[in-house]
Amino acid sequence: MAIFVLAGVLLAVLVLAWVLRPLWRQRPVAGSAAISLLVVASGLLYLAVGTPAALDPASHQVPETLGEAIAQLESELERDPSQVEGWRLLGRAYLAEDRAGDAMDAYAKALQLAPNEPVLLTEAAELRARSAGDRRFDAEAVVMLERALQLDPSQQRARWFLGIARRQAGDAAGAAETWEPLLAQVDAQTVPNLRIQIDQARAEAGLDPLPPPEQARDAQAAVRVSISVDPGLALQMPPDASLFIIARQPGGPPMPVAVQKRPLEVFPIQATLTDADSLMPTATLSSLEQVELVARISASGDAIPQPGDLESEPVVVATGPDAVAALLVDKVVR
């Protein structure tokens, strides 16, 4: 019964999220609020009627109002305060009732339990901005967004909000640079409006607009990579670990030029890095004559190195359609 209810709620969320998609695109603030309220209502409904305890009518009364649902959730969290999703849901519910202070307290408790959850960090930062009188991201919110992107560079909302924060702080160039990787992540219909925002920020910073988008991307390989693992370390690989293949500019900034994340397979693993793996359209893999390659096996699935991860020595190779590199994962990150 509980699984059936949860599946029904999930299906409703997906269907309504699709229906609200035009609203999200045309009015992001209204769309975000509508979807947030949808998630709150769905989650509270599941907590109310989607648990085995709810099968006993004497042990649980379905709330008739949001206030009653909040009270029941508060009671449940008082009984078991270790529920990350419970605190997150309570924070959203408080926000729906314009209780911003209580919402931030709830998110703070969720972050105490899961300090390295990128989505939670992003939502907490957004909440701080929405709760501020001037709707600005403060220093703590910026730290949260930067941490979220360190943990997962593919977090689109964190990247968008961080760009807004930097533009609010007068760093238009930083905002444009933060947003540019989104061009390779969002759908084709969103790209034109995103380019307008980026070009406006670049103009504020005295920079030229982005170059026109290419009509056809060169599909030739930039680098073909073969990754092997030292037999002595093979037994240390968790079965659910992730493999990151990272390309950087030799002697350049630590931010990768291109990253490919994939599940572990039977070694040796063959991979191909192309411009499709580049993080920024203005700094593509094929635009460099050489790249520094590293392979990392991450137990946590995070791009940031963690103690216990397995890693190869960096190798510098020339780029081009005939470029080939071999990496040996043979050391443990300390």
TrEMBL record:
This is Cytochrome C biogenesis protein. Keywords: Cytochrome c-type biogenesis, Membrane, Repeat, TPR repeat, Transmembrane, Transmembrane helix. InterPro entries: C-type_cytochrome_biogenesis, Ig_CycH, TPR-like_helical_dom_sf, TPR_CcmH_CycH, TPR_rpt. It comes from Lysobacter defluvii IMMIB APB-9 = DSM 18482. GO terms for biological process: cytochrome complex assembly. Residues 223-330 form the Cytochrome c-type biogenesis protein H Ig-like domain. The keyword Transmembrane applies. The keyword Secreted does not apply.
